[in-house]
Design goal:
Uridine Diphospho-n-acetylenolpyruvylglucosamine Reductase, domain 3; alpha+beta; 28% helix; 10 helices; binds flavin-adenine dinucleotide
Length: 341
Amino acid sequence: MTQNLFFPTGHCKNTKLGGYLLQGGLGWNSRKFGIACENVIGLDIVTANGELVHANASHNTDLFWAARGAGGSFCGVVVCFHLRLFPKPLYSGAITQAYDMKHLEEVYRWAYEVGPQVPAAAELQLLMSRRVLRFLGAGIEASVPIFADSKEELEEAKAFMLQSPIKKKAFLSTPFVPYQVATMCRFRAIHYPENHHWCVDNMWTSATINELLPYLKGIAKALPTAPSHMLWRNWHPSARQADMAFSVEDKIYLGLYGAWKSPLQTRKSCTWATDWMRWMSHLSSGIQLADENLHNRPARVMSDTHLQKLNQIRAVRDSSQVFSTWPTCPYPSYDPRVLYQ
Ligand SMILES: Cc1cc2nc3c(=O)[nH]c(=O)nc-3n(C[C@H](O)[C@H](O)[C@H](O)COP(=O)(O)OP(=O)(O)OC[C@H]3O[C@@H](n4cnc5c(N)ncnc54)[C@H](O)[C@@H]3O)c2cc1C
């Protein structure tokens, strides 16, 4: 970024690049610049037979296709990623509003309704936890990073937050505050502290707010202590131009992040995320490889046709199965409502 260039990296500075680029990568300004793997323009790869090859839009196109979305199911070791960089946006910063948990229904109804109109330069994220901003009480933190190339674009991106009909209910409300990405990464990192055990799970959904609300209320009631949290990300993707393995995304992204430090908390915290995502799975169109929990809950990671194509590429490129694929296991069949009553 010191060169006035920009890449949609992950939201924390310790998001490592290898897995992030292979599996999709929803990063800063990704609604505008595209997801990270869409901006991979070439890769140097050591294949299953030990050969070093370059893959791009005209060479080894099967590997180039697979490397953009296959994540841990990719059949090669990438030793170099070649990336498309963008001019650094002129304006970057964020607007934050924080709400008490008693406003849960109004906040999510608003986010759901405003979602389709949120400009691509803004990313609406709602983080629900027992410690908003890590030092206040239980509630929902609406935080909106904005990246704009002109004053007009900035004003347009700010408007839905500054003129929000529920803003007066927020117990904390900031104007647009200019920040560099490094500072925004530091703010985000307060919710993902190190020295914790994490158990996460997620889903893409286009379910209605009436379908989602009973679950959101249940999740709020069952929230383990912070830094455990739920992330609602307004996504509403535009049509992707690139043909690549990545193929599952939807209007809303829900991620559950169960975190615990003490072994005494393990039992409750380590199943919370997966239990709730399993219970809501009928509302899901798939999951994002990033915050997945495929060991405990198999789920749809790409479209059926893309999965078939990936398997064909793997069969040709790695016939001796040097590289493993995503884990799968049968669903344990129980109803998590029993655990959270
Ligand atoms: C604090 C934090 C914040 C995060 N924020 C975001 C975010 O904003 N957006 C987002 O999309 N994700 C985010 N993530 C998720 C992140 O993208 C994944 O954890 C990702 O897997 C990290 O990459 P890694 O290199 O550590 O992969 P690993 O977890 O080490 O590996 C994941 C899989 O990819 C394979 N792999 C990794 N590198 C290579 C390579 N070079 N060649 C071949 N295979 C390889 C591994 O074998 C493994 O199967 C975040 C994670 C953390 C911990």
